Amino acid sequence: MDLNDIWSIFFDHINKDPHIITIDKKMKAGIPFVYVCTCPDASLDATLAILKKYAVKAMKGKRLTLELAFIRSEENLHVFRMRFLVPQEKMFCCGNLCFDCIRLREL
User: Fold this and answer.
1) In a domain, 93, yes or no
2) Which of 36, 46, 56, 73 is the most buried (most CB within 10 A)?
3) Which branch of life, at top level (predicted)?
């Protein structure tokens, strides 16, 4: 499963939320920005909680982390920088006796 599948799952879930009117992802300089138009009664904190809730559902069972940062807001349109990050794993032994050394892994 690649990141496009994760984004698809995320959008499938969040489009069903009654507080979200529209949501759109735009790539700027290779970084994904999410434009969220909410109901007028939804606060910025509530919008942030909704994004996190559905991101967690999309990441369930996968080794991903979420990077979510508020950028700006205009009435009920909020912009966030949002990325699903894949953890980096060591591929070789550097000789520094690291706790996650590749030599200590079970095959």
Assistant:
1) no
2) 36
3) Bacteria
* pLDDT of amino acid 91: 66
Q: Are 19 and 36 contacting, i.e. CB atoms less than 8 angstroms apart?
A: no
Q: What is the pTM of this model?
A: 0.79
Asked if 15 contacts 24 with a C-beta cutoff of 8 angstroms, the reply is: no
Confirm whether 101 is domain-assigned: no
Q: Over the stretch 21-52, which tens digit does the pLDDT of each residue have?
A: 999 999 999 899 999 999 999 899 999 999 99
Cβ neighbours of 29 (radius 10 Å): 5
Question: Would you say residue 90 lies in a domain?
Answer: no
The answer to whether residue 99 sits within a structural domain is no
Return all residues near 30 (Cβ < 8 A) that are at least 6 apart: none
